[in-house]
Design goal:
This protein is an alpha+beta fold. It has helices spanning 51-61, 81-100, 113-132, and strands at 2-3, 9-10, 15-20, 36-42, 70-75. The chain has three helices and five strands, in the order E-E-E-E-H-E-H-H.
Length: 139
């Protein structure tokens, strides 16, 4: 079990890892060893996620989510396969935790008197600048 929050834990069988060759520098190892990790997590069919977390996770995942509802996280930052696996899993957990956070509703506030004055003064200054751009003696 992978513990995400107090109420959410993922079964290891829900996560699929594929190892591919990483791009970039790596010396002689780069052509022989598959160190990059592609972690796949089926968001749509996961029994571990509550519905509100699933909906927010779909929004947060963006283009990392495939048409089938599978979240794909690629990790190739490190030259070690183990560290890339840990990095991909940590990014998945961070994404799910971010989806668990509920946005605080915004309370409408009125602008202060000082901010209104600053806004009007700025508009007046801008008007003066534009007035000076007009050709002289156009009448």
């Amino acid at each position: 079990m992978i513990y995400v929050t107090d109420s959410i834990s993922l079964d290891e069988r829900e996560i699929q890892e594929d190892f591919v060759r990483a791009s970039g520098p790596g010396g002689q190892n780069v052509n022989k060893v598959s160190t990059a990790v592609q972690l796949r997590f089926d968001v749509m069919r996961s029994p571990s996620l509550p519905d509100f977390v699933r909906e927010r996770l779909i929004v947060l995942a963006g283009r990392r989510l495939s048409n089938d509802g599978v979240l794909v996280i690629s990790a190739e930052r490190f030259s070690s396969q183990r560290r890339n696996r840990d990095d991909a899993l940590a990014r998945l957990i961070a994404l799910i935790r971010a989806a668990c956070e509920v946005d605080k509703p915004r309370r409408a506030t009125r602008p202060t008197l000082a901010s209104k004055k600053r806004r009007l003064e700025g508009k007046q200054r801008r008007g003066v600048i534009k007035k000076t751009r007009q050709p002289v003696g156009s009448e």
